Amino acid sequence: MKTILVVGGAGYIGSHMVKALAGTGYHPVTLDNLSTGFQDAVKHGQLVVGSMADRVVLEKVFREHEVAAVMHFAAFSQVGESISDPAKYYQNNIAATQVLLDAMIAHDVKHLVFSSTAAIYGNPEYLPINEAHPKQPVNPYGRSKWMVEQMLADYDAAYDLRSIALRYFNAAGADSGGELGECHDPETHLIPLVLQTALGKREKITVFGSDYNTRDGSCIRDYIHVEDLCNAHLYALEALLKGAPSTAYNLGNGEGFTVREVIDVVQHIMQTKISVKHGQRRPGDPPVLIANANLARAELNWFPRHTNLNQIIQSAALWEIRRQMESDSESLSEMINRKKRNIS
């Protein structure tokens, strides 16, 4: 049973990855400072609360565990925030990653699967985007990820640290077993925001930009189910452990859906009307991002199973409904206990 260190394993994608690793015979160890992740999302293996920027914590983890490979999900990822606070992104996404890489080298851990992003491409010069597309990120988030990919190439050449960077587009959906789902505080991703609006937890959903050169004026994105992402990470891990060279792959469905189409599907699934507000374009938002993932299909033998937008949103809807039911149950229990205290 090989031990895999999952940095950022208490977050959305990382927690699903931890479950997938445990389900396929690996022993996951999660390192997460819980700044954006949640302790109760780590359902399998050991959780070490700490930062990848803390060399002391890393030394302890690598001494106590015979780590075969590292999976890195510990980046900040909000485009708007990266524009307003780039220092936060360069410190965590780049500087802290270098601390992690140096600790790996010191402990002779030479395999890394890196969670990258389509944001490294910037505004597309052609569609769908393949791996050869020029790298021209338009925001600090994308620039930080592209810088790490360049660091990884240099670390491979100098220290034989082999890596596979997975450039995915819009992660979405929830665990089919119902244990895990998308949960951010604050929430910034479109599908959970629309679902929460449908459930009455939000008053309305804001569409940022309605005058893009797309079929309905809103942005187009390539949504990929989180379980399909995890499968790709597993295949990348297994390839590295078998001796594959460093490389990078796009992950996506190859189809794009507009913001308005996502809202329409949620309205259909939830059988409710959603209040929509039209806002200004957000700085750094390309109008269209669609992946060409043929290389991952050819070399990793990876084929996404959840390619239908309805499937993706249905899984996310079930998760959101379950969360609301649990929250309502807790609120009712608190109210009952409060009344009991008042009576006594």
Summarize the model shown:
With 344 residues, the chain is of the alpha/beta class. 43% of the residues lie in helices and 17% in strands.
Summarize the structure in words.
By secondary structure, the protein is of the alpha/beta class. The chain has a domain at 3-169 and 225-251 and 287-306: Rossmann fold. Helix content is 43%, strand content 17%. The protein is built from 10 helices and 14 strands. It has helices at 12-23, 55-64, 79-84, 86-106, 140-159, 190-198, 226-241, 259-270, 294-300, 309-343, and strands spanning 3-7, 27-32, 46-49, 67-72, 111-117, 162-168, 170-172, 205-208, 220-221, 223-225, 247-251, 257-258, 276-279, 288-289. The strands form 4 sheets. The protein has a 7-stranded parallel sheet with strand order 3-2-1-4-5-6-11, with helices on both faces. 45% of the residues are buried.
Q: Which descriptors would you attach to this protein?
A:
single chain, 344 residues, alpha/beta, Rossmann fold, three-stranded mixed sheet, globular
What is the topological layout?
Blueprint: E1 3-7, H1 12-23, E2 27-32, E3 46-49, H2 55-64, E4 67-72, H3 79-84, H4 86-106, E5 111-117, H5 140-159, E6 162-168, E7 170-172, H6 190-198, E8 205-208, E9 220-221, E10 223-225, H7 226-241, E11 247-251, E12 257-258, H8 259-270, E13 276-279, E14 288-289, H9 294-300, H10 309-343
Parallel strand pairs: 1-2, 1-4, 2-3, 4-5, 5-6, 6-11, 7-10, 8-13, 9-14
Antiparallel strand pairs: 9-12
Helix pairs in contact: 1-7, 2-4, 4-5, 6-8, 6-10, 8-10
